[in-house]
Give the backbone structure.
Amino acid sequence: MADLNLTEEMVVLGGLKGWNTHTNIEVVISDTLKQGSILDSSGNELEQADASSSRYVVNDLNIRRWLEEYDTGDTLLIAVVNGGCILNEDACVYSDGDITADGQTVLRNYKNKFSTISLFETGETISEDALYINGDLLLMNGDTMINTLGD
């Protein structure tokens, strides 16, 4: 059975059908690397000032375990978002802070969209099986998610 760590913040909220949303790249381990870190095309973690070089977002459930086993400067093969995803804006970060508007613009060039998660929408009465993303309702029905998000 996979050793899943479900305490990590969710980076990907959805993806385009038929799109190669993820790939594996060699990533250089840094002191600040984590789930949601924004990388350049060479696999290096970026700072906000380098937002124009944004290419990938780390989305690997094993990242925490690997960071405990390897040292800063080591190179690992890690799963990253390639494009065509709805990304959790709150989980995508640079080494020195949150994602910037410039970073979002660059990552949108790879068919990504950005959203945020909230469990309850102000003024709404919802059941425990409902989830809102950016005010748009995603209905949860057993193992099936019905996406009501528009373009």
In short: The domain at 12-115 is CATH 2.40.300 (Virus Head Decoration Protein; Chain: A,).
